[in-house]
Amino acid sequence: MNADSPHQQQRVSQSEQTICMEKIENLVKNYIAQHQLPSNENPILVAVSGGVDSVVLLHLLMALGYRCTVAHCNFHLRAEESDRDELFVRKLCASKNIPLFIHHFNTHYEANKRGISIEMAARELRYNWFELLRQDLNIQYIAVGHHRDDSVETLLLNLLRGTGIRGLTGITPIRDQIVRPLLSLTRQQIMEYALEHQLNFVEDSSNSDDVFLRNKIRLQLLPLMQEIWPSANESLCKMSQHLSSVEKIYRTYIHQIVNDIQECNHICISRLEQYPEGETILFEILHPLGFNSHQIKQIYESRKKHSGKVFLSPTVRLVKDRDFFVLLPLQTPHGPEFDIHTIDTLSQLPIKMKACICPKGKIDFHKDNKTLFADADKVQFPLKLRRWQQGDWFVPLGMKGRKKVSDFFSDNKFSLADKENAWILLSANGDVVWIVGYRSDNRYRITDQTERILRIETE
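Given the sequence above, the corresponding structure tokens read:
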């Protein structure tokens, strides 16, 4: 609709308007008190798109005495409509003397760069900017216009996607710094409130596009459910509230189990198997890390198989390693490399090391895997520090034959995490001088002919 003209709908009687107005304002006021949402004593940042939900949110908060600052996102996804929405919000805030902040996003570019959907990109961009703006303005909370129907749609969307119990609790009134004061209202109540107060707003044409799954739920699935069961929305809300209470109990129990079976990035398989419904427990650990239900089922089934199986999520890598599921960062081809031109540059390395070069008789020589003692005249600078790579080999101290670094790891029962965290120190000619903290190379050992000793110590 035109942003500069009131939304044209039939009017209700003046008495009905007054009753409905008071009812809606009281519903929101009571909901804020019931869920301990922020009071009107402090300023609040309000996300306003220009649609009816956000316009009513702003109007209600101001009516309840809140000092509002508005944030508006222009995602440039709907050509002229996006600019129309921005202009509407500018005029709205100017007419009410409300501070306004606007940010423009290249949403298509960000979605392509991250390999995610347009909707996901817009959501991440929006909330990331809201949080930065909130901090800059020193405002504690951000209010968004989600209402009860949105919560029902989210519940059904998560049900179709196969999320866990948390996904069936709908939208929460408060999470981190985001608050949702309109969750006590239906879409119809919000529309009625807008009509009563003759509030102008703009309509997003994409809301009627059933290409999007959420729109299909709102436009097709929910009307069908209400035709079959008129109170479907109310029933789903009650179920969601009940599951929210159940989820708090469930979460406490899961937290206790996770503390028992997981230490840092290691999930102990034998302990996991002591509990009933181990796959469900694994789901609660792994789903927040981006693993889907099908992957988690495969991971659980791999617990009795050989080590080495790798599973990837968008953020982490899980490896089956003996009696553990190990969570690791996504692997880079070889990782960083650091050149050491002199011993004075050791302070610039990612691991703490200190070194000296001394005459043979002037150094305290002892056996310690954390300390390298090498013939300083055999080692060639610049040294190189890097992660180990397939094909690396060395001659272990005290031996004559060469040995693959990977075989050394296997013989000494290194876990996968130990292997990936290991550093290799190489001479300028490419020889492995030291598997840092574990074993030095026999070719660079101290002999009777050694005159100067290179000593490097690591924590």
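Residues 232-261 form the longest helix (30 residues). Try to locate this feature in the token string yourself.
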